[in-house]
């Protein structure tokens, strides 16, 4: 059964400073933080309509949850934890900054049924972290991951691809270091430069030059493949589609179907390997029905790509082909 979240946004709560890329109000479309009563109402309503609560977590996203005012944080956790347990939701997810994790906090989270902690890591390069005003270094991320694992929580890392001062080499090194850290999950967010952020100012002054869109897709596609290969689940690739993000977007790699574009790219690489092998002008492959649109490519981009090289692409669906694979016929 598919996992899902009851998402409750706590925008900018607990943030000690504003990171260069962040405009949480735009990303979450939420202006104010919820009260404990509101959290209870959201959970009660969601539980009533939830078909599979045992596969659903209550998720506090958006700010630095473990750095918000202590009594307020406890009030939110108390309200949510009433809805966790037998016949209710499976746990609580929170997202926070790596420098807002310590043993005391982890003990509190454990007492209130928190099951998963996602860290906004963004990069594991100290220069990139500093240039993007994160206020912590890579060592801080690594020790927070170790501590969270030691306490037995599920750990997730959020990565941002294409930040100010990042390079292709840095992104590849980030990928390698994330694999070494072995988080349970990863969210990959290619940079979206939003109005009102420090990145927007740097971009407008010409100081921040972004990768081109295709390079961002190539990096994220490679991360998808490599993380999954090492058993790290990629629960998000690309910012979720939103009208507010679209209206505040200045530059960057936002696309409502970003993950699909990356997955199409992965299939293109697999089909290219087959095409190179047979050296014919028609390539026939079979894929699992779940992968048919990825093999065709976003808006049939793979069909067009091969057609431009004089190769006709013929795709058949076969439920016996494992998902993610592509067999020559
Ligand atoms: S810590 Fe997270 S929520 Fe806070 S400003 Fe930075 S990116 Fe935004």
Overview of this protein structure:
The protein has about 325 residues and is an alpha/beta fold. It has 2 domains: about 5-255, TIM Barrel (Alpha-Beta Barrel), CATH 3.20.20; about 275-329, no CATH class. It is built from 13 helices and 12 strands. The protein has helices at about 25-30, 35-50, 70-80, 105-110, 125-130, 140-150, 170-180, 200-205, 215-230, 245-250, 260-280, 290-295, 300-310, and strands at about 5-10, 55-60, 90-95, 115-120, 155-160, 185-190, 190-195, 235, 250, 280-285, 310-315, 325-329. The protein has a 7-stranded parallel beta sheet. Strand 5, helix 7 (about 170-180) and strand 6 (about 185-190) form a beta-alpha-beta unit. The model has no long low-confidence stretch (mean pLDDT about 95). The protein binds iron/sulfur cluster. The site of iron/sulfur cluster (SF4) has 10 residues, from loops.
Using brief descriptors, characterize the structure shown.
single chain; TIM Barrel; 2 domains; seven-stranded parallel β-sheet; three-stranded mixed β-sheet; 12 strands; 42% helix; binds iron/sulfur cluster
Q: Would you summarize the structure shown here?
A:
By secondary structure, the protein is of the alpha/beta class. The protein folds into 2 domains: 4-256, Alpha-Beta Barrel (TIM Barrel), CATH 3.20.20.70; 275-328, no CATH class. It is built from 13 helices and 12 strands.
Write the layout of secondary structure elements.
Layout: E1 4-9, H1 24-28, H2 36-49, E2 56-61, H3 70-81, E3 91-96, H4 103-111, E4 114-122, H5 126-131, H6 138-151, E5 154-161, H7 168-181, E6 185-190, E7 192-194, H8 198-204, H9 213-229, E8 233-237, H10 243-248, E9 249-252, H11 258-278, E10 282-287, H12 292-296, H13 301-308, E11 312-317, E12 327-328
Parallel strand pairs: 1-2, 2-3, 3-4, 4-5, 5-6, 6-8, 10-11
Antiparallel strand pairs: 7-9, 10-12
Bound molecules: iron/sulfur cluster.
């Amino acid at each position: 059964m598919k996992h899902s979240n009851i998402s409750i946004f706590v925008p900018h709560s607990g943030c000690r400073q504003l990171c260069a890329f962040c405009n949480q109000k735009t990303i979450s479309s939420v202006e104010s933080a919820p009260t404990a009563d509101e959290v209870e109402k959201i959970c009660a309503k969601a539980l009533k309509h939830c078909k599979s609560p045992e596969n659903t977590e209550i998720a506090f996203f958006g700010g630095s949850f473990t750095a918000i005012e202590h009594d307020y944080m406890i009030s939110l956790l108390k309200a949510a934890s009433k809805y966790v347990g037998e016949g209710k939701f499976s746990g609580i997810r929170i997202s926070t900054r790596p420098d807002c994790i310590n043993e005391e906090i982890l003990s509190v989270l454990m007492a209130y049924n928190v099951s998963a902690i996602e860290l906004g890591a963004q990069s594991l390069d100290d220069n990139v972290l500093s240039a993007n005003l994160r206020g912590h270094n890579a060592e801080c991320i690594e020790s927070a991951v170790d501590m969270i694992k030691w306490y037995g929580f599920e750990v997730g890392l959020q990565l941002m691809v294409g930040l100010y001062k990042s390079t292709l080499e840095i992104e590849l090194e980030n990928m390698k270091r994330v694999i070494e850290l072995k988080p349970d999950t990863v969210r990959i967010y290619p940079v979206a430069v939003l109005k009102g952020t420090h990145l927007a100012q740097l971009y407008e002054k010409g100081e921040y030059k972004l990768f081109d869109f295709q390079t961002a897709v190539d990096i994220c596609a490679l991360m998808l493949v490599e993380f999954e290969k090492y058993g790290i689940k990629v629960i998000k690739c690309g910012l979720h589609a939103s009208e507010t993000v679209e209206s505040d977007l200045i530059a960057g790699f936002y696309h409502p179907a970003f993950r699909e574009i990356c997955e199409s790219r992965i299939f293109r690489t697999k089909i290219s390997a087959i095409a190179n092998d047979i050296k014919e002008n028609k390539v026939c492959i079979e894929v699992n029905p779940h992968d048919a649109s990825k093999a065709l490519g976003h808006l049939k981009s793979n069909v067009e790509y091969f057609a431009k090289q004089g190769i006709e692409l013929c795709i058949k669906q076969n439920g016996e082909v494992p998902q993610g694979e592509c067999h020559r016929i």
